[in-house]
Amino acid sequence: MTRQPTAPSATPAWIWLPAGFGALLLVVPLVATVVDVPWADLPELLTSDASRQALSLSLRTALGSTALCIALGTPMGWVLARTHLPAQRLIRTVVLLPMVLPPVVSGMALLAAFGRNSLLGGALEGFGIRIGFTTVAVVLAQMFVSLPFMVLGVEGALRTQGVDHERTAATLGAGPGRVLTRVTLPLIAPALRSASVLCFARALGEFGATITFAGSFPGITRTLPLEVYLVRESDMDAAIALSLLLLVVAGVIVAATHAQPRRPV
Amino acid sequence: MRTIYCLIAVCALLSSGCSSTSADEQITVLAAASLQDVFEAAGEDFTEQTGVEVTFSFAGSQSLVTQLAEGSPGDVLATANEKTMDQARADGTVADPLPFATNTLTLAVAPGNPKNVQGLDDLTRTDLLFVRCAEAVPCGTASDKVLADLQTTPVSEENSVTDVLGKVTSGQADVGLVYSTDVTRSQGAAEAVDFPEAETALNTYPIAVTTQSDAPAAQRFVDHITGPDGQRLLQEAGFGTP
């Protein structure tokens, strides 16, 4: 921000063509969705029982999984940034893997771990605990795909932050706990915030792992994306109305995380 | 850009299909996805007997009907229910459909039926995890019909009949309401428990020559499917006779 303002570097004319095509590819489907929205019926479509149930479930599960991601992901990021584990690189790769896995593969993986025929799921079933077809399964699916975003955000922030401030605080007599709460966490707060927003967005949009692993039942496992996918079969207007809702939420999230416009270099 | 590539690909396919044979020795059949295995086998028999090449396009019935209305080429249309065929008739894309197969609902359970499911009444048992199709999809409409008098508590209402079957074959659910041909196609991963009430929700598959078709072979293909050879293959796959 303190850099001298420089003139934008010369842009070759041809760059506009591929850039324009790319922008069209992204913008046209979004605009087309908004154009298709049945504005007159919108309030009715969005306040139907099924829509409200799906929205409420989506918000509750996404908030819950985001809270759990903060609670577990922050320590994970800390461990990866500040300790020397054997096979650290391998551990990081495995931890970040769900971020790039196709969601349906995540669903299969969760089934293999928590399904009724799995070791863990079978043992839990012995205690009368069933995960499949419950809201817990939805939260697990959301956490599986969004936790890596939290780990990555925290680890990255801690690494760029360095340890100078923490050393200084320790030299001045602060214990490790006090350094963590009074120095480290405030310093990485912005990164923590944007990582949480990303987690929430990813959890809200979760579809593949949920439908593979959790099932689809109104109010219990049928989140907003699943509801869109279902009503699309019978009521295109309702599907588009719900899509608009998710689109608006996504817009707010992107605006909140990338609010700072960047000037050309 | 993509449209252009698609056009090139389609042109290449069409020209290679037409190059060596005259127009009435090649037909295009649009058929519901659930018919794929049977129709491909029947198509081979048909080509062997008549020398007519058959090109298939398998998709959901609704998509096929929409494609025809939007000018997609096709000589024969076979859909998975009468509702979609009625729509094609209303569009004016087909004439005089004939029913050629039926599909009934059945209960899919794990091989060996470990939970001892005997019929529809078992679906009210509280120790069973029951999965079905959601009301909004065609198999869900049929399910509603047979379950009308029962108080069932499904743990999940899936988007498609294959999703229901998947929950049973993966062991997540104990019993699922699916079509009998789905169980046949699962090749032993699930077992069917038939129930008499299924007769009230028969799903009929109609077939018709399209109005745009001028290939005499189109009617011969319809005759082949409704004739003994086609019917034998359909029955082997678990379809019923209308």
TrEMBL record, chain A:
Which Gene3D superfamilies is this protein grouped with? MetI-like
SUPFAM superfamilies tied to this protein: MetI-like
UniProtKB keywords = Cell membrane, Membrane, Molybdenum, Sulfate transport, Transmembrane, Transmembrane helix, Transport
Q: Topology relative to the membrane, per the entry?
A: Multi-pass membrane protein
One Pfam family in the UniProt entry: BPD_transp_1
List residues of the ABC transmembrane type-1 domain.
55-257
Q: What InterPro entries does UniProt report for this protein, alphabetically?
A: MetI-like, MetI-like_sf, ModB_ABC, NifC_ABC_porter, Sulph_transpt2
Transmembrane ranges, per UniProt, are 12-35, 55-81, 93-115, 127-152, 239-259
Taxonomic superkingdom: Bacteria
MF terms (GO), sorted A to Z: ABC-type sulfate transporter activity; molybdate ion transmembrane transporter activity
Q: Which PROSITE patterns match?
A: ABC_TM1
Query: Where is the protein localized?
Result: Cell membrane; Membrane
User: Which sequence ranges form a coiled-coil region, renumbered to this chain?
Assistant: none
Question: What is the documented function of this protein?
Answer: Part of the binding-protein-dependent transport system for molybdenum; probably responsible for the translocation of the substrate across the membrane.
What does the record note on quaternary structure? The complex is composed of two ATP-binding proteins (CysA), two transmembrane proteins (CysT and CysW) and a solute-binding protein (CysP).
Protein name according to UniProt: Molybdenum transport system permease
What species is this protein from? Propioniferax innocua
TrEMBL record, chain B:
Which keywords belong to this entry? Answer: Metal-binding, Molybdenum, Signal
Return the NCBIfam families for the record.
modA (TIGR01256)
What Gene Ontology biological process does one annotation of this record name? molybdate ion transport
- What terms describe the molecular function in GO for this protein? metal ion binding; molybdate ion binding
Record keywords: Zinc included? no
Q: What is this protein called?
A: Molybdate transport system substrate-binding protein
Give the species: Propioniferax innocua
Q: Which family does it belong to?
A: Belongs to the bacterial solute-binding protein ModA family.
Does the keyword Signal feature in the UniProt annotation? yes
PROSITE patterns in UniProt: PROKAR_LIPOPROTEIN
Stretch forming the signal peptide: 1-23
- Output the SUPFAM superfamilies linked to this UniProt entry: Periplasmic binding protein-like II
So where does molybdate get bound?
Answer: S34, S61, V161, Y179
Which InterPro entries does the UniProt entry name for this protein?
Answer: ModA, ModA/WtpA
The record's Pfam families line, in alphabetical order, gives: SBP_bac_11
